[in-house]
Amino acid sequence: MKTFKRVLNIIMVILTVTLLWSCNSEGAKKAQRIREIKIGVTLYKESDLFISSIAENLIDIAKEKESSEDIKIILNIADSNGSTVNETKQVEKFINQKYDVICVNLVDRTAASTIIDKAKLANIPVIFFNREPVEEDMQRWNKIYYVGAEAEKSGKMQAEIILDAYKENSNIVDKNSDGKIQYVMLEGEAGHQDSSIRTEYCIKSMIENGLEVEKLSDDIANWENSQAREKMIQWIKSYGDDIEVVFSNNDDMALGAINAYDSLNIDIVDRPLIVGVDGIQEALQQIKEGKMIGTVISDAKEQASAIFNIAFSLGKNGDIDECIDLLDGKYFKVKHTKVLKENVELFYN
Ligand code: GAL
Ligand code: CA
After folding, report:
1. 146 pairs with which residues across the strands?
2. Are residues 108 and 169 in the same domain?
3. Atom 1 (ligand 1): residue with closest C-alpha?
4. Which of 63, 94, 229, 253 shows its CA 20 to 30 Å from the CA of 124?
């Protein structure tokens, strides 16, 4: 009996030790789990003011999150510098280095399939932003997402800014009192959803709201300040005081138009009304100074925070948190706000 008890004791000790050992090793495994999330980001062109502001916001948000949660966040932001080849290489690098999520600001929004196929093969989700892939590409896989703004609304709001000014005092807009609004349109890149849709909805809204419009000219200035400045100088030479409104698909080109007027020393009262989109700080400054009538904010901070929240949730849980409300399970579109001299201080830092 004594021998039996001793054997039983030995068995119990062995069992307890084994159990403790296995619990500890389970604990050690848990400790190794999700202590780090790797997010790779590619930008179509870092020199683009609006894009760089999204990137800066992403860095701030990641830092905040890292200090509030016990997770290391590796955020690697790469500049494609306008080259699809660079961008594809960067994505391949993120895949080889086993990043958890890849965020892509496409150089060519019509050519997302190569990136999607590579990411799908490696099972790494992709969040596109600002340059929207075509619908067909968005359907290629269920782990692709898009964060951007509502292009239609921004165009409509540009029109509203001019319509409101007209209602308040028609002479401020229709300077030659011919009952028509003579305008020029500075357009972003050809084929970019925010160029074509903003242009279309802006003019459509003007007409739908009963204003007669006359296009003096329009041209592509690729979102760029310097290109817009050159076009504007030409237009001022050709049309002079006839230009009553300058619609610009973004703020940086609107700033280029202002530069043109500044460089020709044309008095502010003799200039057309200039309206942009984005809400970058440099444009808000011009609104304060009365050189731009207004802009439509396309909240870079909110876009960055949507990109980050989706990426973080995918990196941490492999899925989208319930509190993130996506359209069709894929799309997140940020709302716009109109900014004029009256409310500019609310947004100016
Ligand atoms: C637009 C923005 C432009 C430019 C462009 C780049 O949404 O208004 O300023 O940043 O995206 O794709
Ligand atoms: Ca007129």
Report:
1. 128, 331
2. no
3. 194
4. 63
- Name the residue with tokens 């909805």: 201
With the most atoms of ligand 1 within 8 angstroms of its CB, the residue from 46, 48, 297 to mutate is 48
Burial of 25 (0-12, 13-18, 19+ CB in 10 A): exposed
Q: Do residue 39 and residue 137 come from a single domain?
A: yes
User: Of the bound ligands, which one is closest to the alpha carbon of residue 272?
Assistant: 2
Q: Count the domains in the chain.
A: 2
Q: Which atom of ligand 1 lies at the shortest distance from residue 51's CA?
A: 10
30: part of which helix (H) or strand (E)? helix 2-32
Which CA distances in Å does 136 have to 54, 150, 222, 326? 26, 19, 25, 18
Q: Whose CA is nearest to atom 11 of ligand 1?
A: 130
- Are 198 and 244 in a shared domain? yes
Tens digits of pLDDT across the chain (349 residues): 445 455 445 554 444 444 434 433 433 434 345 689 999 999 999 999 999 999 999 999 999 999 898 899 999 999 999 999 999 999 999 999 999 999 999 999 999 999 999 999 999 999 999 999 999 999 999 999 999 999 999 999 999 999 999 999 999 999 999 999 999 999 999 999 999 999 999 999 999 999 999 999 999 999 999 999 999 999 999 999 999 999 999 999 999 999 999 999 999 999 999 999 999 999 999 999 999 999 999 999 999 999 999 999 999 999 998 889 999 999 999 999 999 999 999 999 8
Q: Which residues have any ligand 1 atom within 6 Å of their CB?
A: 48, 50-51, 130-131, 188, 192, 194, 223, 250, 252, 277-278, 298
Ligand 1 atom with the smallest distance to the CA of 49 is 10
Q: Which atom of ligand 1 is nearest to the CA of 151?
A: 7
